[in-house]
Amino acid sequence: PQRIHLADYRPPSHLVEDVHLTFQLDPKATRVTSRIRFKPNPDSEETGFRLHGEGLTLISAKIDGTRVDPEMVEDGLVVAAPNDAFTWEAVVEINPEDNKALEGLYLSNGMYCTQCEAQGFRRITYYPDRPDVMAPFTVRIESDLPVLLSNGNLKERGEGFTEWHDPWPKPAYLFALVAGELVDVHDTFITKSGREVQLAVWVRKGDEHKCGWALNSLKKSMKWDEDIYGREYDLDIFNIVAVDDFNMGAMENKGLNIFNASAVLCSPETSTDADFERIEAIVAHEYFHNWTGNRITCRDWFQLCLKEGLTVFRDQQFTADMRSAPVKRIEDAILLRARQFREDAGPLAHPVRPESFVEINNFYTVTVYEKGAELIGMLKRIVGDETYYKALDLYFERHDGDAATIEDWIKVFEDAADRDLSQFMLWYSQAGTPKITVTETFEEGTHTLVLEQSVPDTPGQADKKPMHIPLLFALFDPDTGQQFGEDVLLELTEPRIEIRTRGHDRKPVVSLNRDFSAPVIIDDTSRTDDRLFLLANETDSFNRWEAARSLTRDALTALATGGLGPGEEYLDALNGLLVDDSLDPAYRALILRQPSEEEIAQAIFDYGRHPEPLSVNRAADTLRARMAAHFEPDLPRLFRGMQVHGAYSPEAADAGRRAFANGLLTLLSRLDGGTAARAQFDQADNMTNRLAALGSLLQIDEGAEALARFESDWKHDRLVMNKWYAIQISLAPPEAAVGTARALTEREDFDWTNPNRFRAVMGGLVSNPAGFHDATGAGYEFLADWLIRLDEKNPQTAARTSTAFETWKRYDPKRQDLIKAQLDRILGTEGLSRDLTEMMTRIRG
Ligand code: DPP
Ligand code: ZN
Predict the structure, then answer these.
(1) 747-768 burial, b if ≥16 CB within 10 A, otherwise e?
(2) Model pLDDT for residues 738-758, shown as the tens digit of each residue
(3) Whether residues 372 and 249 fall in one domain
(4) Residue 839 included in any domain
(5) Of all helices (H) and strands (E), which one includes residue 310?
(6) CATH number of the domain where residue 735 is located
(7) Rounded to whole angstroms, how far apart are CA atoms 768 and 729?
(8) Nearest atom within ligand 1 for CA of residue 293
(9) Among residues 378, 399, 429, which one ends one of the domains?
(10) Residues 263 and 341 reside in one and the same domain
(11) Of 404, 429, 454, the domain-final residue
């Protein structure tokens, strides 16, 4: 397959003035008629006229009304075209029913829908399918189905058809069409300039009661974007549609967002607090794309982080405002470290703006999204809040209607802040997580802090330059527990700096990278007593949590490698935080939450040893047991005190209490044999408490009865059953995990072409590392079998799931051999997709 390079970017040969599409919908033979007005692009040196197309049956083609006979090439067609403007007309036929890749136009449970990002539009008709070609679209849909939707405003509706017009020029990846037997739940929003917008969430009949939260989240997002960024919505309609079969979480198509049902439908009985929070954030994310993505789009797919990093940053700000900012910061850091640091440390490491790819779908990654968002946060911290919003205003003013680049983005910051940010640009081009080594010396009242930065080599990149790293830091007085002076924002630009302070009686305590100001690894050589000090005295809530986290990580790492377990002092300190009622319960829940087994495995590997997944699993179990024993005097009272009474509310306050209570329940279950968990399972009126109780029971191997009850209560609800599938695999005893997963795939309702169901099983297994890494290799073989099978139908989801193998070099030689054999087997499969071939090749290294 062909590799595409950023350096080869050339402006398109032609621009599009407008697009008319007519769809005659039919499950097996949908006709798409296009009428497109092209004109030569004055900024292009390309000659020749070429359109993308994939899997299309061309019925007829005309240029200016005269039939032409295009030459078919690998990814489309080439045809002789006039030197000035002309009209292209084509009729093609496509087969939505056979489309299980879920890209382009497909059928999901009898409903037509589309997914065009990144390159799905070329599976609908011939077109210059690249984001820098933007045009207004008019779309006519012909079908007997009752609901026929497309982008923009509804122009006309008649017997068996609708016609839509989207006046905002857009790239083809934002095109959308939906048709089916849908019902809507609707509302209105009045924009700040007084325009009324019709809002609707479209679902299958029977799901109406699960739409309210998404609709409400949409209204909050619209208001927030007006208040914080001054951005107003720009059409008369905003539609959201829930689809059962969807590769991603959701898609920001102009005026017609299409959502994975799991990212929109929710109710207290069927959804957890985490689902509510996630749905609120995804609705916001897709809505915010209207400005950062749609009005200003990407020039090419290498610039994906331009819209995704910024939009993730905006949805993180939104969640912080709707809920708790400190809790959100910690959650984001946990995710970043668990998934992005891991990506950055392995064979799939790539820059936030990649320089080449084979399949762009493989670059919708945590690096582009989450690390991309961290870069925005660092920019904001470097230039300050006021200048940040000035830069954003300038961005919208200067680039509205553009297909822009990262250079354009950085330029608005340079102009608004009047400073040179060329070193900061390295964050976009250098892959790998920077590491900062800390050394402290204390002599005759002088404290010296030495910080040295380095960026590790990553595939295809070595010998990196020093980065521009904003580090928020403070010094504490060890005697009073007070901070010396104000926070300082250090801007590290050199490979090494020294910070010297004088006149101390005793060595001060350093708190570095407060608020997780930079996505870096601090090589943490600080002593246990410094961390215990920060646990007690740090006023930055992130670093206070960080102190607890790193102590827990050390305890687990020690336990897993045959060392001593957690010290009394540490357990006492944790206990002190748990009973401290001045602390937000959500925050205490985070203090209590253990690092994942994955994180511990990585920590052991970083110390230069191969992690043994079973030992890590046992260490986690031992630590829980020790904690339960140590906290026993306070546990029952704390647990009771955190119960929420009254009607269920998904808002942060109640959700935080439930999160903490359910963390406590896990410990309590080790003391009472599951009595409290069983009672909670029976009495819960919401999914959060029900699922948490089930989890607690499964962890002590007492879950069988509850699992059966859960199934009989919810077998009619696909989304709830995905939870049932996942939890019993992820919490199975390691030796039973693969068997459980396999047995579930043999069930009647294991519809593996549904990405959510497929992920429930494969994701469940992978999140049970001691099960997945079973020493016989059974887990590897099972996953490989399913990747090969799914790849034939849905390469995108197969490729995404294959990242489970990205950590393979972390494990012992025997496991490495077993995994390598599976990688080779997959690679040797005939007809393997471009997606999975690229992933396997990169992972194998
Ligand atoms: N729908 C995906 C997202 O919003 C891709 N744009 O991130
Ligand atoms: Zn996005």
Answers:
(1) eeebebebbbbbbbbbbbbbbb
(2) 999 999 999 999 999 999 999
(3) no
(4) yes
(5) helix 304-322
(6) 1.25.50.10
(7) 7
(8) 6
(9) 429
(10) no
(11) 429
C-alpha 795 to ligand 1 mean position (Å): 18
Which of 102, 286, 318 is the best mutation target for the ligand 1 pocket, counting ligand atoms within 8 Å of the beta carbon and taking the most? 286
Please indicate, yes or no, whether residues 123 and 193 belong to a single structural domain of this protein. Answer: yes
> Which residues are near ligand 2, the ion (C-beta closer than 5 Å)?
308, 311
Is the full-model pTM beyond 0.80? yes
Between the CA of 768 and the centroid of ligand 1 the distance, in Å, is 28
Complex prediction ipTM: 0.98
Pair (279, 328) in one structural domain: no
- The residue whose CB lies within 8 Å of the most ligand 1 atoms, and thus the one to mutate among 252, 264, 304, is 252
- Are β-strands 196-204 and 237-243 bridged in parallel, bridged antiparallel, or unpaired? parallel
* 359 in active site: no
Contacts of 843 (CB under 8 A, 6+ apart): 346, 347, 348, 802, 803, 805, 806, 808, 823
The residue whose CA is least distant from atom 2 of ligand 1 is: 251
- Does residue 529 fall inside a structural domain? no
- Residue 498 Cα to ligand 2 midpoint, Å, equals 40
Per the structure, the complete domain to which residue 369 belongs is given by 303-429
The rounded distance, in Å, linking the Cα atoms of 716 and 743 is 20
User: Which residues are CB-neighbours of 165 under 8 A, at least 6 positions away?
Assistant: 136, 137, 138, 139, 152, 153, 155
In a domain, 461, yes or no: no
For the chain, what's the residue count? 845
Catalytic one among 286, 359, 597, 599?
286
Q: What is the CATH number of the domain that holds 217?
A: 2.60.40.1730
Cross-strand bridge partners of residue 142: 24, 161
DSSP state of 296: B
Domain match, 176 and 228 both: yes
Residue range 601-632, pLDDT digits in tens: 999 999 999 999 999 999 999 999 999 999 99
Measure the CA–CA gap between 128 and 119, rounded to whole angstroms. 10
The answer to whether residues 782 and 741 touch, using CB atoms and an 8 Å cutoff, is: yes
| Token pair listed for 89 | 């007309």
Question: How many structural domains compose the chain?
Answer: 3
pLDDT of residue 527: 79
Check: CB of residue 377 under 8 Å from CB of residue 391.
no
693 closest CA partner among 272, 334, 266, 265 = 272
Residue owning the nearest CA to atom 6 of ligand 1: 251
Q: Which ligand 1 atom sits nearest the alpha carbon of residue 286?
A: 4
Q: Please, what is the angle between helix 304-322 and helix 372-383, to 10°?
A: 70
Q: Per residue in 25-35, pLDDT tens?
A: 999 999 999 99
User: Which residue's alpha carbon is at the smallest distance from atom 3 of ligand 1?
Assistant: 251
- Of 591, 608, 598, 499, the closest CA to residue 549 belongs to 591
Q: What is residue 106's predicted lDDT score, i.e. its pLDDT? A: 98
Q: Are residues 216 and 175 in the same domain?
A: yes
> Do residues 31 and 56 touch, judged by C-beta distance below 8 A?
no
- 3-state class (DSSP) for residue 20: strand
**In a shared domain, residues 323 and 423:** yes
We report the CATH number of the domain holding residue 324 as 1.10.390.10
Q: Prior bond to 118 cis, omega within 30?
A: yes
Q: How far away, in angstroms, is 517 Cα from ligand 1 center?
A: 25
Q: In what order do the strands lie in the sheet with 496-501?
A: 496-501, 446-454, 435-443, 521-523
For ligand 1, atom 1, name the residue with the nearest CA. 251
Q: Is residue 447 part of a domain?
A: no
Q: CA geometry: angle at 114 spanning 112 and 118, to 5°?
A: 165
Query: Tell me, what's the pLDDT at 525?
Result: 67
Residues 101-123 pLDDT 10s: 999 999 999 999 999 999 999 99
Pocket of ligand 1 (CB under 6 A): 117, 248, 250-252, 285-286, 289, 308
Whether the per-residue pLDDT at 526 is higher than 90: the answer is: no
Residue 714 phi, psi (nearest 5): -125, 15
Same domain for 171 and 250, yes or no, is yes
